[in-house]
Structures are given as structure tokens and as C-alpha cells.
Write a structure and sequence with these properties.
Layout: H1 2-5, H2 11-21, H3 24-29, H4 32-37, H5 42-49, H6 53-63, E1 68-72, H7 80-83, E2 91-96, E3 105-109, H8 116-131, E4 135-138, H9 144-154, E5 159-162, H10 176-185, E6 187-190, H11 202-212, E7 216-219, H12 227-237, E8 241-244, H13 255-262, E9 266-267, H14 271-278, H15 286-291, H16 297-305, H17 307-316, H18 323-330, H19 334-346, E10 350-352, E11 358-360
Parallel strand pairs: 3-4, 3-7, 4-5, 5-6, 7-8, 8-9
Antiparallel strand pairs: 1-2, 2-6, 10-11
Helix pairs in contact: 8-9, 8-14, 8-19, 9-10, 11-12, 18-19
Length: about 375
């Protein structure tokens, strides 16, 4: 706990400290001069030798909860992918399920001031990818982050929220209920000890953990100065895949994604594009991807009794059709059709073809 409160301590630096001093107790008892000689800054050495009593008390109280954990660099639960990055934190505070950190993760990030279309895309992609076997990782911020977490939960998957503050508090407060839902099937993660408030400088540090936990990072919508671009840059530097969804050339919130695509990010139009790209990295969960059962059976049954869905499937027939053709045939709005197509695909009743058109699976056709 003392070492965790020192702040900014990487796993690699912790290894050097243990190699130099022998064990954690000797590190904590070391003199300021010895700590400086070992590479610690004056402020880190001071926090280590004289920890803030309020943060110490908050940390101890927080760890008394059964679902609260302190994962160290030498712990078997420390995420393997995160361990690979430069400057990986020596300690992680985790609320929720530790095993979530060992599942294949995909980061979904974007603007806090997202458009309605951006929020819808984040939700839909996260739901699809969660159904395909990915744990969706994001930063619990307003906008795209929140929509991605909610989409993962709707897709019957797990999600990880990486926070820029101690986990005894929540930022933004409006996402307190969402955070509670995340803990039930996933995890909240932070390198900051309980008692540490959400400072501006904490957020860029948080971003390296989001990308570091993940096989790849999907940027849904981002302006030229969006923090999501920092996450994408870090992902690239960490040797991870970067994906971006294109948007209107007239939208300021598309320019960040377009810049990423120009710089080499993979342009994606469907969740299937990402699954196909990462398929080779997902040894051990290929059967989960093939099943891709993102919605429970009860939801599948609901489609067969819902008049709108029955009508949409009737208009679709068995011929491949584009979303625009279905809008024309059904009389529904584009937004309604897009949402319905996603849910039908997650339920396994339709499939997306390589040219972007949709086709009904034979077993999914409702009797008229």
C-alpha cells in the first residue's frame, strides 16, 4: 500500500527497486538518499517515506470490501498485455471481477461531446464485439465511452472502465449507476489509490492503460484535439491495432478519425471488420467468436412476436438487401432500420454480407 501511494511507479522500476533492496520492506525503510540513488524522484521518495494519512486511511478502508483488490506487478492476476508496455503501472486497484482483466479486450473510445450518430455507433459496435467474445474497455467518460460500456452490457458481454482517480469516488458522478452495473460483470480499474481526486493530468496517464489492456483500439468519433487520439497514438506505439470509423467530411468530430485513417489506422464499417482483423490474435476463443450469440434466447423469441421486426423480415425475404432498400420497402426511418438490423444480427437471425448488404438466415424467417 505504501509503494502504491508513492505514485507513478512503473512495474519495471519496481523490479529494479526489489533487485536493489531485496524486498518491499527494505524499499519502504530505505533512506531518501538510497531511494534517489535508485532512481526515485524527490516527491516519490517523500510520499513513500511519509505517506498522506488521508490517502492511507482511504486505501485501507476501500480494500476491506470483498470485491476490491490491489493487484501488484508480481501478481498472477496482473494483465499480460499490459505488462508488455513501457511504463506499465506497478499497481492496479480493481473493483469487480479480477478474471475480466485476463479476457481479450478491445478499447472503444471517442469524443465526450459526441453526436447522436456517434453514440449509436459506439453502442452498436460495442454490443456486437461483446457478443463476439471481446471485453470492451473504455474510460467511463461522457459520450462515446459511456455508450460503449452500455453497448457491451447490452451485448451480454463484460466491460472494463479505467478511471483517472481513486475508486472510492466516481467521475463523472452521472455515471455512478453505470459504474455499478459494470462491477457486476466486469471491473473498474485505476492505478491511483483511493483518495486521489480526478486531476487533469491523470487522464492522459489513464489512456495508456486503456490501450495497454487491449488487443486494439477503435476510435468511433473524435475531433482534432480529442483525448481519444492520444489513446490511439499510444496503442500504435504499443504495437496494438488501431481502427477508426469514418464520418462526414463536414463534421468536425470526424476529422480525428479521418486523420487516423490517413496515418494508417484500419477503416472499419462493421464490427465484423474488426473481428476478422483480430481473429488470428484470439487463440482459444475462436469458438466464442463463431457462435457470436450476443442476445439471449428470450430476445430472439421477442423478435418473432414484435410486429415491426416481423414486418422488416417479411420485406427482407431471402434476397440480399441494403439498409437503404429496407428503408424504402418498410417505410421505417433509417435510424429505426439500423437499430433493428443490429439486434437481428446479434440474435443470429440475419447476417451481414461482404458488400455491406443484409441477408436473412433461413432458420430465422417468421411464418406469416
Amino acid at each position: 500500500m505504501r509503494l502504491a501511494q508513492a505514485g507513478n511507479l512503473s512495474g519495471q522500476r519496481l523490479e529494479r527497486l526489489l533487485s536493489r533492496f531485496g524486498d518491499v520492506g527494505d524499499v519502504v525503510r530505505a533512506s531518501a538518499a538510497d531511494l534517489a540513488a535508485a532512481g526515485l524522484t524527490d516527491s516519490m521518495a517523500e510520499r513513500l517515506r511519509d505517506p498522506d494519512p488521508e490517502i492511507a486511511a482511504a486505501t485501507e478502508a476501500w480494500l476491506e470490501h470483498n470485491d476490491h483488490h490491489l493487484v501488484t506487478w508480481v501478481d498472477s492476476h496482473y494483465p499480460a498485455l499490459l505488462r508488455e508496455i513501457s511504463g506499465a503501472p506497478a499497481f492496479l486497484f480493481v473493483a469487480g471481477h479480477l478474471n475480466t482483466l485476463e479476457l481479450p479486450q478491445l478499447a472503444v473510445v471517442g469524443s465526450r461531446n459526441a453526436t447522436g450518430a456517434g453514440l449509436d455507433n459506439a453502442f452498436r459496435f460495442a454490443a456486437y464485439l461483446a457478443g463476439a467474445g471481446f471485453t470492451i474497455t473504455s474510460g467511463l467518460a461522457r459520450g462515446i465511452d459511456g455508450a460503449a460500456h452500455r453497448g457491451a452490457l447490452k451485448g451480454s458481454g463484460s466491460t472494463v472502465a479505467v478511471c483517472a482517480h481513486g475508486l472510492d469516488q466516481l467521475y463523472p458522478p452521472a455515471h455512478a449507476e453505470l459504474a455499478g452495473q459494470i462491477v457486476l460483470s466486469g471491473a473498474l480499474v485505476s492505478e491511483f489509490a483511493p483518495g486521489v481526486p480526478p486531476r487533469r493530468t491523470n487522464f492522459p496517464r489513464r489512456n495508456r492503460i486503456i490501450s495497454g489492456l487491449s488487443l486494439g483500439t477503435l476510435v468511433v468519433e473524435a475531433g482534432q484535439r480529442s483525448g481519444a487520439l492520444i489513446t490511439a497514438r499510444l496503442a500504435s506505439e504499443q504495437g496494438r491495432e488501431v481502427f477508426a470509423i469514418p464520418g462526414s467530411i463536414h463534421s468536425p468530430l470526424s476529422r480525428g478519425c479521418h486523420r487516423l485513417i490517413r496515418d494508417g489506422a484500419t477503416l472499419v464499417e462493421t464490427g465484423a471488420d474488426i473481428v476478422e482483423e483480430l481473429r488470428g490474435l484470439l487463440e482459444g476463443i475462436s469458438s466464442t467468436i463463431e457462435q457470436n450469440s450476443g442476445l439471449p434466447e428470450s430476445d430472439r423469441a421477442d423478435f418473432m412476436t414484435d410486429p415491426q421486426y416481423r414486418q422488416l423480415l417479411h420485406h427482407m425475404g431471402y434476397d440480399p438487401l441494403s439498409a437503404d432498400q429496407l428503408v424504402t420497402r418498410s417505410g421505417l426511418t433509417s435510424a429505426e432500420v439500423s437499430s433493428m438490423l443490429l439486434r437481428l444480427e446479434l440474435a443470429g437471425l440475419i447476417e451481414t454480407l461482404s458488400d455491406g448488404r443484409y441477408q436473412q438466415r433461413e432458420e430465422g424467417h417468421p411464418k406469416q
